[in-house]
Design a protein that fits this description.
Length: about 150
């Protein structure tokens, strides 16, 4: 017999799977609707949390503009109470400018560890730790070598 907590965790896991699939389709409007009005983003390199749905949209839009064929593979996901932890693997082709680097048409592959807090039926907060060093190494030009 499933407990109420099991049911809530299962719903939260399903909610996150839907969110990743919606992002992969590029439907940012639908993604934003999955966030609370006062959504909080905790990202590496930024001392304080970022607030609001539009902040999330800008980051996601930059990723999709840089990698329009972005594929998102959830490698592991589990939930406890109102939190969901995800180990995710991203793949794509660098076809647009990203973080100041012009399109290289290179294939990229990088991972992220992410934690989400759910309020009711919406995503209220995220802590993301994408491997940006690996990603930027893949799209940056190799250092010049002396011949």
């Amino acid at each position: 017999m499933a407990t109420e907590m099991d049911t809530t965790v299962d719903k939260n896991l399903a909610r996150l799977r839907t969110a990743y699939a919606t992002l992969e389709r590029g439907d940012l409007d639908a993604c934003v609707e999955m966030l609370t009005e006062d959504f909080i983003a905790n990202v590496p390199g930024v001392a304080d949390p970022l607030y609001g749905r539009e902040t999330w949209r800008l980051g996601a839009q930059a990723m999709l503009e840089g990698f329009p064929d972005l594929q998102i593979n959830v490698e592991d996901m589990f939930g406890v109470d109102d939190n969901v932890a995800v180990r995710v693997h991203f793949h794509g082709t660098h076809r647009g400018a990203f973080q100041g680097v012009a399109a290289t048409d290179r294939q990229v592959s990088f991972r992220s560890i992410e934690i989400y807090r759910i309020e009711g039926d919406k995503i209220a907060e995220e802590w993301v730790a994408p491997d940006m060093i690996s990603l930027m190494q893949q799209i940056s030009s190799p250092p010049a070598t002396d011949q």
